[in-house]
Design a protein that fits this description.
The structure holds 2 protein chains of 2 kinds. Chain A is an all-beta fold. In chain A, about 0% of the residues lie in helices and about 55% in strands. Chain B has no helices and 11 strands. The chains are: A mainly beta, B mainly beta. The interface of A and B includes residues 32 and 104 of A.
Chain lengths: ~110, ~120
């Protein structure tokens, strides 16, 4: 069965520092992978998605993620954190032929001034 | 373009009561999803509609949960009777495409936070 595991339920970085949120997937077939962000009291918003076209995927708000098949990883990065990046981040994998998303448990990102 | 609308935003009920949530997807979106997000967890798909037909309801607790999508637009999710463990945020999402492509983008509403006492 396809699944994702997010390493670290809480990540704290200083403003201006590198953001690295980890996601590892388990899939018997080439996966389609997504990163979503959820701000307090809001729904989820798509940051970026991997659809096998390119291993380095650029998303909104300066985020990017790299698909590494050898490491079964799809980590999310941003070179310089901003206070507005504080939110919950979810990695997800698309299951089966239809777009049934299976989400990780989420990583709460805190930005320290 | 207006986003996915949900109501109510918050609901508090006692166990064994019934409750209903409403979702209006983005205009023209064929596929509609209901997710349950328990505190501290990622969203879990409850049911997926393609127009007004059910594509996947394998994780919907059918003894107490029901959902419908009349005329392929709005949708309601009902819980009857509610249990304490149903306390969660219920998210509605929609996608433009037919939902059969693994890369379709889902657009989420703000959710309904349900508290069962």
């Amino acid at each position: 069965a396809q699944s994702v595991t997010q390493l670290g339920s809480h990540v704290s970085v200083s403003e201006g520092a590198l953001v690295l949120l980890r996601c590892n997937y388990s899939s018997s077939v080439p996966p389609y992978l997504f990163w979503y962000v959820q701000y307090p009291n809001q729904g989820l918003q798509l940051l970026l998605k991997y659809t096998s076209a390119a291993t380095l995927v650029k998303g909104i708000n300066g985020f990017e993620a790299e698909f590494k098949k050898s490491e079964t990883s799809f980590h999310l990065t941003k070179p310089s954190a901003h206070m507005s990046d504080a939110a919950e981040y979810f990695c997800a994998v698309s299951v089966g032929g239809a777009q049934k998303l299976v989400f990780g448990q989420g990583t709460r990102l805190t930005i320290n001034p | 373009e207006a986003g996915v609308a949900q109501s109510p935003r918050y609901k508090i009920i006692e166990k064994r009561q019934s409750v209903a949530f409403w979702c209006n997807p983005i205009s023209g979106h064929a596929t509609l999803y209901w997710y349950q997000q328990i505190l501290g967890q990622g969203p879990k798909l409850l049911i997926q509609f393609q127009n007004n037909g059910v594509v996947d309801d394998s994780q919907l607790p059918k003894d107490r949960f029901s959902a419908e999508r009349l005329k392929g637009v709005d949708s309601t999710l009902k819980i009857q009777p509610a249990k304490l463990e149903d306390s969660a945020v219920y998210l509605c999402a929609s996608s433009l495409e037919n939902g059969l492509l693994p890369t379709d983008t889902q657009y989420f509403g703000p959710g309904t936070r349900l508290t069962v006492l």
